[in-house]
Amino acid sequence: xxxxxxxxxxxxxxxxxxxxxxxxxxxxxxxxxxxxxxxxxxxxxxxxxxxxxxxxxxxxxxxxxxxxxxxxxxxxxxxxxxxxxxxxxxxxxxxxxxxxxxxxxxxxxxxxxxxxxxxxxxxxxxxxxxxxxxxxxxxxxxxxxxxxxxxxxxxxxxxxxxxxxxxxxxxxxxxxxxxxxxxxxxxxxxxxxxxxxxxxxxxxxxxxxxxxxxxxxxxxxxxxxxxxx
Length: 229
Fold this sequence. Notes:
The protein has eight helices and ten strands. Helix 2 packs across helix 3.
């Protein structure tokens, strides 16, 4: 049985709809909670797929959140192994940082459901179904420079870097393709202060959740492209 290890930063930002897909496809899913776990004891090369999930902190805030340093070390080890690695939001930023790219505060909060614009490379990638214009969940205020050796796959008006790939094995998504309606309420509670400060309408977030099989198609296509040992 293939093994998925997900590094989680807050409990409610989990694999979401991706977890049900992994279960359906016969993967064993395991979580490690980065802020409270002994990251030094993790064999980051063992899982068939490593997923680094999102969270409400900056990848560059290692002075405030000391666990980020050993987590970054794990990501660097995983990158060197050339084994499958998926980063979502903070996870994508951590991958960029591990590659030596700059991660920094962006010009504005980008929160809500909206489509992305695929690059030519993105249209030929696992993200191709997003060319249909389906909205995805944006929830970030940070961004990053494109890592060396990476290819930009998608952008929005506010942020150039919305998705990137490094070969076939590494995929970084600034947006939350894993988010689903059944778990959105936990996000609304967990990020209540941020939403209030940003003036984001909870009713709008609830009303605009797309009903689509695109997350399934994207994840399935990416997994099919991976070279497993």
